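Quick one, probably user error.
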């Protein structure tokens, strides 16, 4: 099971690439100079863009998305449930299922999604994803190795991840061995690539170990 989670570890995003993507997202944050500049950029883009190509959108556009409305334009009430989907490359663990709450391990800190949550896009780090079918009583804990969470204005929430396993399926001894293995690889890496792969392994196995310790 653990081997499956890390079989694509060599293709993991390197830290400097994550930093570049974060900087690009912040570039067009609402209220920034670049945000003002983007309004002037769009007409120029459409002048040279191929026919049929949609104009680009920016972070501020998503954050200011309007609330869900009925056909007559009146705002819809806050839904009683979160419509949740959890998608892996090979499987849909949840597909538009109604749940009370989702707790996700964002790279900026864990956050909860309740009905009526503001529209959000969050990068996820290795950690525990909690799905509360019924809040605090019917709860399923998954370990994910990262991904992204999308919370929409209409009450839907989507999580996409490469790998996901039930927390109870993790073997503490295998996690301990895996952490020691990647710590050793990190200390003996011969180049930046080997070092980056080892660091990702250490990050994932450390998160597994921390998650298991919290459940004991």
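Nope, works fine. Designed sequence:
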């Amino acid at each position: 099971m653990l081997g499956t989670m890390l079989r694509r570890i060599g293709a993991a995003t390197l830290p400097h690439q994550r930093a570049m993507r974060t900087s690009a997202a912040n570039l067009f944050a609402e209220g920034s100079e670049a945000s003002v500049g983007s309004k002037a950029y769009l007409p120029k883009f459409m002048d040279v863009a191929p026919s049929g190509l949609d104009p680009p959108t920016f972070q501020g556009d998503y954050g200011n998305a309007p609330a869900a409305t009925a056909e007559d334009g009146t705002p819809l009430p806050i839904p009683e449930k979160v419509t949740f989907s959890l998608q892996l490359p090979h499987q849909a663990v949840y597909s538009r299922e109604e749940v009370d709450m989702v707790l996700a391990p964002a790279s900026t800190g864990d956050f909860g999604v309740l009905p009526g949550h503001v529209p959000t896009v969050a990068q996820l780090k290795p950690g525990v994803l909690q799905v509360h079918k019924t809040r605090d009583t019917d709860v399923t804990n998954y370990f994910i190795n990262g991904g992204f969470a999308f919370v929409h204005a209409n009450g839907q929430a989507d999580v996409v991840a490469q790998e996901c396993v039930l927390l109870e399926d993790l073997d503490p001894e295998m996690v301990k061995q895996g952490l020691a293995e990647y710590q050793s690889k990190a200390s003996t890496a011969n180049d930046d690539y080997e070092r980056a792969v080892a660091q990702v392994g250490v990050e994932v196995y450390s998160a597994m170990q921390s998650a298991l310790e919290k459940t004991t």
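The radius of gyration is 20 Å.
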